[in-house]
Amino acid sequence: MQGGAFDELLRLVSPEFGRDELIDWPSVEAAWGVGFPRDYKRFLRHYGVGSFNDSLHVFAPAGPDRAAVAAATEGLAGGLAWLREHSRGGSGTPPYPAYPARPGLIRWGTSIAGDDAFWLVDVADPDAWPIVIWDRGMTEWITRPPGMTELLLQVLTAPVDDQAMSMIGSAPGRPVRFVNEQIVNTLQDPWPDLLD
User: Fold this and answer.
1) 190 vs 177: CA distance, rounded Å
2) What is the pLDDT of residues 81-91, one digit of tens each?
3) Half-sphere exposure of residue 196, counting CA atoms within 13 Å on the CB side?
4) Are 108 and 148 in contact (CB under 8 A)?
5) Residue 101: partners with Cβ closer than 8 Å, 6 or more residues away
6) For 15-32, how does the pLDDT look when each residue is reduced to its tens digit (9 = 90+)?
7) Cβ contacts of residue 55 below 8 Å, gap of 6+?
8) Greatest CA span in the chain, whole angstroms?
């Protein structure tokens, strides 16, 4: 399904303003101690790091050295600890710790509304990792089936009230553009179709 879903994403959103991140995957995965989902690697080859309509941002993994990975996982652990302390057992309490704990979370995206997307590293096969979303507006954690591409398609095509993550400035039928962070400042108007 991921191949078909990725082809659908390519039809929906041109990679015209994307850039291959040229990630040394063997080194990055060795530093993390896990592989990464195939659709994520494919996404970073076609689109790279950047955002959809300046609203939904996709990150590259930290690396390729262990120090960068440690800094990323420690930063996430600190943020989750803060949420855990301030949620006091409510629906905003993180259900999992940061990776490298197992099961643990690796963050791969965020929205302008403050929603965050993670993989739940709970099995050896990264293509089987569920997606976990921190919905800041609802202050709740939502677990979805595996597939970053499927989640992106849902967010980009669903009516605003049905989106799995908040994407301000989007609406069904409105053009969606992805712009890589390496080139966003070189474009005169990188987001010409955003809602006013």
Assistant:
1) 8
2) 888 887 766 77
3) 0
4) yes
5) none
6) 999 999 999 999 999 999
7) 111, 112, 167, 168, 169, 170
8) 47
Is residue 43 within 8 A of residue 68, CB to CB? The reply is no
- Three-state DSSP at 117 gives strand
Question: CA 135 to CA 113: how far, in whole Å?
Answer: 9
* pLDDT, average across residues 103-108: 96
> Do 145 and 132 contact (CB within 8 A), yes or no?
no
Distance CA 99, CA 77 (A): 8
Cα 115 from chain centre: 10
Write out the two tokens for 135. 């919905």
Order of all β-strands in the sheet with 131-135: 140-144, 131-135, 116-121, 104-111, 56-58, 50-52, 178-180
Whole-prediction pTM: 0.89
- State the Cα–Cα distance between residues 115 and 155, nearest whole angstrom: 12
Segment 136-140 long-range contacts (CB within 8 Å, at least 24 positions apart): 136/166, 137/113, 137/166, 138/91, 139/87, 139/90, 139/91, 139/92, 140/91, 140/92
User: Tokens standing for 118?
Assistant: 């993670």
Instruction: Please say if the pLDDT value at position 162 is more than 90.
Output: no
